[in-house]
Amino acid sequence: MRSITVKHIDLFSIAMPFVEKLRTSFGEEPFKTAVIVRLTTDDGLVGWGEAPLEIHPGYSYETMGTGQHVLREFLVPALLGQVIADPTDVPALLGHTRGHPLSKHALESAVWDVWAQANNLSLAGAFAAHLPDGHASRGRAKVGVSIGIKPSVDETIAVIRKRLDEGYARIKLKIQPGWDVQLARGVRAAFPEIMLMLDANSAYSLADAEYLKQMDEFNLLMLEQPLGYTDIYEHSKLQPQLSTPICLDESIHSANDARMALSIGAAKIINLKPSRVSGFSESLEIYKVCVEHGAPLWVGGMMETGIGRAANVAFASLPGVTLPCDISATSRYYLQDLTEPPFELQPDSTLLVPDGLGLGVAVHEDRISRAAGLWQSEYPYKA
Ligand code: OSB
Ligand code: MG
Fold first, then answer.
1. Phi-psi region of 56 (alpha: psi -120 to 50; beta: other; left: phi over 0)
2. Does one domain contain both 216 and 290?
3. Number of structural domains found in the chain
4. How far apart (Å, rounded) are the C-alpha atoms in residues 243 and 327?
5. What does the pLDDT read at residue 379?
6. Which sequence positions are flagged as catalytic?
7. Do 266 and 216 have their domain in common?
8. What is the pLDDT of residue 336?
9. Residues with Cβ < 8 Å from 345, sequence gap 6 or more?
10. Is residue 188 located within the same domain as residue 306?
C-alpha cells in the first residue's frame, strides 16, 4: 500500500439553505453549516472531508466556532507535512487534542479519500481492506428518512405520505415530551405496517420509564437515545422495562462505549455516526464490536453535504451495517449540493455507492465558494 504526504490543508466554513429543516427536542438549525476540508498531497492528489458542525451546541458540544478554532490552531498543524502510511494512523497524530470528534473526522476523511485514490481504491474498497474477508461493499446502502417535529400530527402524516411515495422504506420521527405517544398513535393508525422508529435526542429521564413503556404498543423498529446524552448506565435500567429495542446515538463515542452499552444491556442497536466517533478508524472498530455481538448497526446522519454523505454511503454499504441508515437522497436536503451527481433514491430504498476512486463524486469548488459566502454574510463575526 502507498503512503501519502500531507502538503496543504484548506478549510472552508459554509452555510446552505435546507429544503426541509429538522426540528429536534433541542431545537432547529436555521441553515446547514459545516467546515469543509480540502487536503492536498505532495503528488497533487486532492481529498475532501466534512465536519458537520452546527451553530448551536445542541447535539454536540462542538460548534462552527469551536470547530474552526480547534481545526486551525491544533488539528491542521498536527497533520501538515506528515507521511501517512495508513488512514488508521491519523487518530494517534491528532491524539494530543482531546475530544472534538467532528473536527477530527473531517481531517481523517480527507486522508481516507486521498489514501484510497493513491491506492486505486474506492472509499468503500479502502474500508473493506481494513476488515476481515467477507466484508466487501454491497455497492449500495439501505436508507430511510428522518422527519422533524411538526406543528401537528396531521402535518406529520402528510410529510410521511410524501416520503413513502418517494420510496423511503423506513421513517424516523423526532419526539420530545408532549410530542410522543399521541404522535406515535396517530401515525400508526394512518400507517399500520410501515417501518417506524422514534428519536428522542436525550429528552427523557429514567423517571419517565413507566410513561415510555407505552411505546411498546406501536411496534417500533427502535427508540433512539431516550435518556441522557452521556448516559449508558441508566439506559441499562430502562431497556429491560421495554420490549422496544433501544438504540444509542449521542452516548456512543468509541468502540469501548459500544462494547459497554451492548454488554450491560443498555441498548440492542447502535447508531454509528462516523463524525460523532471521530472518524472512520474508530467507526471500523465499532463495526467489529457490533459484528462480534451480533448487534444490529446502522449509519446515522448529520444532514451532510455530498462530501460527507458520499463517505457515509460507502461505509453504510458494508455488510455489517444491517438496518436502514439516516442517509437520504440529495433532494431531501438541498436544491443544489456541493457535489455531482446527486444521490437518488433507488426503488429498493437504497442509495448507490459512487463508482470511482476515493469518494467518487465531483466536488464543485464554485459551489463551496458560494456557500462560504452565505456563511460569511450570515455570521460575519465568525468569518
Ligand atoms: O439525532 O440523528 C440525530 C441531525 C442532526 C443532529 C442529530 C440527528 C440528526 C438527524 C439527521 O437525525 C438525519 C440525516 O442526516 O438525514
Ligand atoms: Mg439521533
1. beta
2. yes
3. 2
4. 26
5. 85
6. 174, 273
7. yes
8. 97
9. 143, 166, 167, 168, 328, 329, 351
10. yes
Residue 47 CA to residue 371 CA, distance in Å, equals: 19
Peptide bond connecting 274 to the previous residue in cis, omega within 30 degrees of 0:
no
CATH of the domain at 38: 3.30.390.10
Which are the contacts of 13, defined by CB distance < 8 A and separation ≥ 6?
Answer: 33, 34, 35, 64, 68, 372, 375, 376, 382, 383
Q: Which structural domain, as residue segments, surrounds residue 325?
A: 128-362
Q: Which stretches of the chain drop beneath a pLDDT of 70?
A: 381-383
Residues 245 and 330 in one domain: yes
Residues at Cβ < 5 Å from ligand 2 ion: 199, 224, 249
Same domain? For 309 and 372 the reply is: no
CB-based contact 278:91 (threshold 8 Å): yes
The Cα 344–Cα 26 span in angstroms is: 30
Which protein residue's CA is at the shortest distance from atom 14 of ligand 1? 301
| pLDDT of amino acid 208 | 98
Question: Ligand 1, closest atom to CA 201?
Answer: 1
CA of 16 to the centre of ligand 1 (A): 16
- The Å distance, Cα 55 to ligand 2 centre, comes to 17
